[in-house]
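Sample intake — EAL domain-containing protein
Collected from: Litorilituus sediminis
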Amino acid sequence: MVEEKVKSIIDSLSHAATDNFADVICLSLAKATHADYVFIAELDEQLTRATSISLAAHGEIQENISYLLANSPCEHVGQGSVCSYSENCQQAFPEDQLLFDMNISGYVGVPLRNEAGQTTGILVALFEQAIFAEQDVRALFLLFSGMIKKEMEKQALISELNIRNEIIEESQEAIIVCDKNVEIISVNKAFTKISGYTFKEVKGKNPKFLGSGLTDKHFYGDMWQAIHETGSWSGEIWNKKKTGEIFPEWLSISTICDENNEVSYYVAFFFDISKRKASESKIYKQANFDLLTGLANRFLFTEQVALAVNNAISGHKKSAILHMDLDLFKEINDVYGHDFGDQLLIQAAERLQSYIKSTDCVARISGDGFAILLNDISNEYIVNAIVKRILAAFSGAFIIGDISIQCTLSIGITVFQEHEQVSDIMKRAETAMYHAKDSGRNSYCYFSQKMQDTALRKLHLKNQLSHAIENRQLNVVYQPIISIKDKRVNKFEALVRWNNQGEWVSPEEFIQIAEEFSLIKELGQLVLSQACLVLKQLKQQGFNDVVFNINRSVFEIPLNQSENKQWLNTIEHFGLQPSDICFELTESALAPDKRNNEILFNLLRESGCTIALDDFGTGYSSLAYVRRIPIDYIKIDRSFITDMSTNEDDNILVSTIIAMSKALGKKVVAEGVETKEQLDLLSALSCDYIQGYLFSKPLPAEQLANYLSQFNFDDY
């Protein structure tokens, strides 16, 4: 009898009109056993609930059900036991309401186990009348339980593979799969979208046909060496689309090996980074070049001077800096307007460029200030000749529109050869320039010993600053940082101020002195300690969600990793959490030669501190390091905010910085916000935080609690 039923079930499976195995087997088992209900159900991980994947009732497939196993015969089956009742099943499980609702008398249930022997499903037959041949039903269900479980595993695997294939196909990254001979055997839709090639066009080809021709063979040699040695490679590369367009992409290649560790497939993922490169180029240009004249800006010029210093040390070569200022430019601007002044600056830049060679550098370093770096100077006669030609060129009139105007130059010169600080060299040239101006303009002057007043003042301030730090005579004030989304004060930036015997010394001046004379660590520790104390007092007053931003100079970062916990120790000393402090760093801290920086930043982040990149766009602008260093916030320098409402270039740059920051998962703080118009523009660009005089000047510690209590975003 059982054999006939087995044959009948197998015959039903073989001739089924549907591919749904579960439905067919449930119907076949129900028919063979005369069961009123047969169903296959999957169990949850806790083995507390069963959910059917197929339910046959009275010869038809019904909607699936889900029910709790507790106090039911299925609970025993879920625990791995075969359970059967030829009749009176309701009486055996009086709390199983489902048995009563379905009027069930007979029950047969067998577990469905995986390869590890764990019960993951159940096969159940329900009978409204007593079972005529219970043993036959049990035998039949046990016989087919293995087949059913295998089919369930097969369907699950097929479903998983379909999902994976769909993910690959719908991925925004282009994917190429090659065989061991590096011949293409599969691509996804993103590949066709990016490259323009269909699978039919590339099937069986080596991907090298996509090459742009811009990459040399050594690059590819190194790439394949890395793949063979490590099994993977990733990097930036230029390739060519079907249209012939050459584009940059980020490419990752991995190998898939067989059980003998032999390469079976190569899988490549790539995506077009043209937009990112364009944005990076735009930001680099903004950070390194003057948008008006196209000349190098102060930052790039300083880098070039640093290179010249290094070359002078190694090659015993002299270089010279010419620091130049347009005479009476402010008066010309006031009379003819800023547009006229801009055109004058452009023409002045063009004249200066015509007097330098390719190894030199000309830059606009301030509003009407220019500088030239002359390299490989054999003697001062060469410098004099160039300076005289420049002065002669500026003796000629500038023609702007229908206006002819004279505008001369004052030039300060310093020649350097031995190892010196770049800032000292630049300062000497600037000092000489001011001396030339004081001497009647339209002239030049070399730096001399008579110009040491500035240096003497610097030394004088250094001694007084050291005394002020030792006796804690500097003040820390706090400028609010406001969340646009939350409309509340989330943070304060701690700023140090120095009243030196009645004279307010500019932070730019005394911080530079502190850095130059190795006082910056003591100054930084003073600021951190005072800020932590004030923050602790605020928290004691109930302001628990406030974070203090503490500026750190690149010169405060320890060279020795053993000192990396000093800042965290100070925070802990005041009973604060690392998450209460955000450290602000300038872009110079990201430079790749600062090897301990990244280790320190990771330690701070892992401990709970956040990190902000201050004055973004004015320093070491490398998206590669911004992406790699663990930065939480990017602060846009006030110089970009000031004119963004009137200068389209600044508006575009700010928009690009915000978009880039969002793409990298960073939040954005705009500094120097002074007008409601700037606030509205930044809000529209999805900027996260605002800092500036629109909301408040820096406040003394005793005013913070009142400011927090009284603050109302809508008042501004």
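Post-analysis note: The two ends are 89 Å apart (CA to CA).
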